[in-house]
Amino acid sequence: MSKNVLIGITGGIAAYKSLYLIRLFVKNGYDVKVMATEHAMQFVTPLSIETLSKHELYTDMFSPAIHRTTEHISLAQWADVCVVAPATANIIGKIAHGIADDAVSTTCMALKNPLFIAPAMNEQMLHNAAVEDNLSLLKQRGVHVIDSQAGFLACNAYGDGRMAEPEDIFHAVHAFMQQKLFPQRSGIKAMVSAGGTQEAIDAVRYIGNRSSGLMGFALAEALADQGIEVDLVTAPTHLTIQHPLVHRIDVESAEQMLQACTSSARQADIVIMSAAVADYTPVKKYEHKLKKQSQNLTIELMPTVDILKTLSLNRAKKQWVVGFALETDNELENARKKMNTKQLDMIVLNSLNDKGAGFSTHTNKVLVLDADGGVVDIPLQSKAAVATEIVKHIFEKLNLNAHE
Ligand code: CTP
Predict the structure, then answer these.
(1) Is 155 a catalytic residue?
(2) Which of 209, 234, 273 to mutate to test ligand 1, by most ligand atoms within 8 A of the CB atom?
(3) pTM
(4) Residues 224 and 337 in one domain
(5) Which of 74, 129, 268, 332 stands 20 to 30 A from 103 (CA)?
(6) 114 and 189: one domain?
(7) Is 321 domain-assigned?
(8) Rounded to whole angstroms, how far apart are CA atoms 348 and 335?
(9) Domain residues for 11?
(10) How confident is the model at residue 339 (pLDDT cuts 50, 70, 90)?
(11) Which of 142, 176, 210 is the last residue of a domain?
(12) Together in a domain, 150 and 35
């Protein structure tokens, strides 16, 4: 989903903080473009802005380098959200009264998506009747004003008018965008498991597998993008996830995963077990590190609980349960058998025989089998795209409308 943020910088000393604001948006996955007034260029340089945003700065509406005079329209249409920070008394006055005579004011006039402004000026200026009236006019029109704070001002006085900190500006805009992009569907919850469990042998060693967790993380994100609250129960992985609707629960062993999944699944309407759960675990787990010996070492293993089967057979409520199958021989037949014995609604068949599919790759190719006999072939593509397709298919089965 696109997250394009347009930052407008105007001519105030707080402009130096806008560089950090650009960084915050970029770091959090936004595509950032910047426009600035000529006065802003007295405080920050195009080189810093362009290096941080990775895009050309827009400041001169008639620059021969642009080769067209409609850049303000293109930028305004590109932006999912626009943030003017710092917003001087001048730009606030211009936006409030429909004056468009530079790159920032003209682009703001052409915006179709929400506008945030972060005023920054001397206290006397902020409480000037004209500025106060302009700010309340903008608020009435739906412009989001991120209030300035009291603090030390550049004019060496203590007072109102200091621009909100970049983190606060970022969080205000980010929270708004998350709600806009991922409106929560009330009442639908999911539980997704991911990664490969680790079964301790001793204090430092474990039995593990090659699962990266990518598919489970992609599924959690795809469900959350549809407004579903997700509990993501994950075995150890280097992956991170930043989504307001995803609640991550870290576990290590199959036993811990069983406990966490059982507890999360109680509230879930959709359960997806994509984790590679160890089928066996050492009978004895040594608390200290085992010392090297000259003779053979035997580790006795005992079977773990089949989490998927346990969840599926003990469903407390009407629930859609999806399993994964990783097969090398008689793939379809074995997957169907798994679906039947574990009484699943759906099984996603991964094949280790396909190039670019399976563990530790960023791409995958799967067959989705339904309990009613349906088969959907999802061709080789990124795991994120495969996850989106799987979620779409689950939605069809549950008669839910998916957001595009
Ligand atoms: N699974 C589970 N608990 C286990 C083992 C597997 O919940 N202890 C789940 C996996 O998350 C997956 C499904 O069962 O969704 C199938 O896993 P797979 O390894 O393909 O099959 P197994 O049932 O373990 O059988 P086998 O290894 O013999 O193919």
Answers:
(1) yes
(2) 273
(3) 0.71
(4) yes
(5) 129
(6) no
(7) yes
(8) 8
(9) 4-176
(10) very high
(11) 176
(12) yes
Q: Please say whether the beta carbons of 184 and 229 come within 8 A.
A: yes
82, 108, 155, 261: the active-site residue = 155
Closest CA relative to residue 78, chosen from 100, 63, 56: 56
* Cβ(275) – ligand 1 distance below 6 Å: yes
Residue 403 within a domain: no
112 and 249 share one domain: no
State the first-to-last Cα distance of the chain, in angstroms, to the nearest integer.
9
Indicate whether 359 pLDDT > 80. no
**What percent of the chain shows pLDDT beyond 70?**
98
Shortest CA distance to 41 belongs to which of 8, 65, 5, 90?
A: 8
- Residue 400: the pLDDT is 85
CA distance 75 to 55: 12
Q: Alpha-carbon distance 296 to 272, whole Å?
A: 40
Least confident of 18-27, 239-248, 317-326, 386-395: 239-248
Which comes out higher in pLDDT, residue 28 or 267? 267
Angle subtended at Cα 281 by Cα 276 and Cα 285, rounded to the nearest 5 degrees: 135
The model's confidence at residue 127, banded by pLDDT at 50, 70 and 90, is very high
In terms of DSSP bridges, do strands 320-327 and 4-9 run parallel, antiparallel, or are they unpaired?
Answer: unpaired
